[in-house]
Amino acid sequence: MNIYQVKDLPKNKIIEFFKMHWGSPEMVISSGIYDCSALDGFAVLNEEDKIIGLITYIIKNTECEIISLDSTEEGKGIGTSLVQEVENFAEKKNCRIVKLITTNDNLLALKFYQKRGFILSKIIHNAVEEARKVKPEIPLIGNDGIPIRDEIELIKVLN
């Protein structure tokens, strides 16, 4: 599996990926408003040079925050490889923790990250209501018919 730095890929390819998977490159979460197409990250491409996995992150002091993670081919280790790439990079930058925020309806993400050593650290009640004030296209109902209301922060302490 070849992993590339996002900065080495054409920007329009990154923007199109986010438009397809998120509606736009803009991510609104309680830690901030981000243009994911402008963030550092890593990507996995298939044989046709199509992005099949993409992770973005920011580093603030000794914390690395994963802002987005998408894999178009589940169960092939793409997401795991991308998370490990960010963890390795964060360790090199002397980060103590990697953290991320997901929504209460994203049970697949909660399962995925916990299986990889992340723990639940905080629930931010009604955070998505606040995010909708900036990005009204965030749906009211999410995965499995679950109302999207809260954000859940997960963290992983690095060695």
From TrEMBL:
PROSITE patterns with a match to the protein in the record: GNAT
Coiled coil: none
All residue ranges annotated as the N-acetyltransferase domain in the record: 1-135
Pfam short name (any one): Acetyltransf_1
Signal peptide: none
Record-linked InterPro entries: Acyl_CoA_acyltransferase, GNAT_dom
A molecular function GO annotation: acyltransferase activity, transferring groups other than amino-acyl groups
Protein's name according to its UniProt entry: GNAT family N-acetyltransferase
Species annotation: Cytobacillus firmus (Bacillus firmus)
Lineage: Bacteria, Bacillati, Bacillota, Bacilli, Bacillales
